[in-house]
Specification:
Distance between the termini: 85 Å
Helix content: over 70%
Number of helices: 3
Radius of gyration: 32 Å
Largest sheet: none
Shape: rod-shaped
Length: 162
Amino acid sequence: MTAEPTAPGPEEPEQLVLMRQVVAFAREQTRLSHERSAQSAQRSEMSAERSYMNAERTLSVWIRTALAAMVLGLAIDRFGLSTRPRSSGLGPDTASMWVGAAMIAFGVLIAAETGLRFRRYAAAYCQSHAVPERHGPIMGASFALISCLFGVALIVLVLLTP
């Protein structure tokens, strides 16, 4: 759609020809700008999708850390902080029980906080973008909730089992 530069005719002054060339150049630049804008919007949407998936990966890493803290708490409770056997007649090792329960509670806190943070991020993301295929915002928060319930069950197990 660009106009070819033409040599000035006998009735056209050279300035008019130059003005036509400038207008043709401006039209070409506008067309290119629109193409770049569409590409930029596509890149921006892809970047937002990667950001959402990064948030999911971060959630899974924190949930893994929370589960590790819970398992460590269970190990502390079961194996004890001291080398004194539980069957020594001195009663259960209460320090190990409380430290183990505290570690499990810490894991529950980690899982709950990361689940809430992910849910807030997902809600904000859904307001301005389409959720990536097969990545519902409820799934990550549900996994965090299940991890919290697992931790609460472990705390009950630790505190009620001698």
